[in-house]
Hints:
The complex is a heterodimer of chains A (about 150) and B (about 400).
Chain A: H1 2-16, E1 47-51, E2 56-59, H2 62-71, E3 78-84, E4 92-94, E5 99-102, E6 114-117, H3 120-130, E7 133-135, H4 137-146
Antiparallel strand pairs in A: 1-2, 1-3, 3-4, 5-6, 5-7
Chain B: H1 2-22, E1 24-27, H2 33-39, E2 45-48, E3 52-54, E4 58-60, E5 65-68, E6 73-75, E7 83-85, E8 91-93, E9 96-98, E10 109-114, E11 120-122, E12 125-127, E13 131-136, E14 139-144, E15 147-149, E16 162-165, E17 168-173, E18 176-178, E19 184-187, E20 193-195, E21 198-200, E22 207-210, E23 216-218, E24 221-223, E25 228-235, E26 238-240, E27 243-245, E28 253-266, E29 269-271, E30 275-280, E31 283-288, E32 291-293, E33 297-301, E34 309-311, E35 314-316, E36 320-324, E37 332-334, E38 337-338, H3 361-368, H4 379-390
Amino acid sequence: MRKIILIFILIFTLSLISCSPKPEPINYGQDVCDLCKMNITDNKFAAELVTKKGKVYKFDSIECLFNFKNLDIEGVEIHSEWVNDFSNPGQLINLKEAYFLQSDVFRSPMGLNVLSFSSKEEREKIINQYGGKVLTYDEVFELANTE
Amino acid sequence: MIKTELRTILLLYILFLLNSAYSQIYVNPGQNLNEIIQNSPTGSTIIIKPGIYKVDNLIINKPLTIIGENYPILQGNLKDEVITINSNQVKIRGLKISNAGVNFLKENAAIRLEEVSNCLIENNILTNNFFGIYISKSFNCVVRNNKIEAFNKSETTSGNGIHLWYSKAITIENNEITGHRDGIYFEFVRHSLVKNNYSKNNLRYGLHFMFSDSCSYIKNTFENNGAGVAVMYTRNVTMRENKFINNWGAASFGVLLKDLSDCLIEKNLFEQNTNGLYLEGCNRITVRYNNFINNGWGIKLMANSMDNYFYDNNFISNSFDVLTNSRNNFNSFTRNYWNKYNGFDLDRDGFGDVFYRPVKMFSIIVEREQASLILIHSLFVEILNIAESILPSLTPENLKDNQPRMYPIKI
């Protein structure tokens, strides 16, 4: 009996240990962008921001995430930022490690038209086919907040 | 002198008749439609006989009139676009077009107009296409009497029914759109008219426009779309005599207005929506002669909206007439009819003698704590509301209608 109680206590304490914050899958068509209130439908451009407390904010595009970051949240609260990989729609990649390309051939939900890729090679493929302008993280941030 | 002029006119007229008579080309099933189009002289009329035509991607790069007899079917290959128009003065009438391919890199449409003017797309039936009609960088075109339908289940694999991008002076009239992502979508459009369309059962919005100044939306019906109608980052919009009906869901709106200024919203019907009219960051909007009937929230007026005027509207049987999330109010409500108003009109001027506060305390509690909705019809809540209306503590004190009507106005 005592053993069972001990095991229960053990399980209970284990369940109290909080897991580290991580992004959650976006429910396309149901979830709403936390900045512009639009339903998130495009799985090539959607983005996510996770706070240290584990709260997840979802956005329909990287420009909404950067506007939100600029206006509505303190930098110290941010745990991680995520964005869809343009080459694998629906696959979230870490925004800090993404490779960016601006190309007006492709239209993002809010009109900044910045694509994010998980690797340089994937980006090269699109550049060779459609052209576009290579950007860094900071340049995209600037651009999103000057539009 | 006059005689010679007349003669030339007559001659020209005869030439014109001859010209139009001679350049009629008939196409039958089994013939190569693409070759015929490429080889026909400029300005000719191509008449397509009934039947099924397999099409890869028809490119029209000269002025032509294409007319279908009894709706011939142009079937795309499910990979490419069906018809791409790269020339001015193209008319397309009476075709049934299907199977424009879903593609994540290209926005394939049944009919695309790319940098053209003076085109007419009418009386077509478009079924099962990624995008229906896609107009980019064009001006002076008319899209009317088309039936556009798709059967997609997911929003990520479906495009918009009528999609406009960077265009001017476009008329969208009498179309019926169902089952697409957004029924009608405008981005960076100017001076265009959307009239008498019926947009229903679309996955996201019945109508959605962004950065599209100076457009009018008149006598349309938007029914049972995923989230109603959304209007963002725009100035100078007129919305008149539309019906926004049956948009239910946690994030659904009859009309969602975000960052708008200088607009007129009049004579519309907002019925059976979770949120009838939602405003966020809106300035100088006039809302008058509208009916708000049976909505969850008639109007949600969110912070940082200023100088909006709401007058001569009817609010009937909404669970909550007006909700705002700020204690200050810089908007004016006057001369509306509120069916929850229970004051008297002793001086018989048609307006109640005591002001009416449409924002109920309970709606503010609900806004903070969703689960409390379960108490909506309890006696306790009624008492709270009455106490609050006498001594406002949570609700904005100056959000009140000083002339509440005793009877609904006829609109």
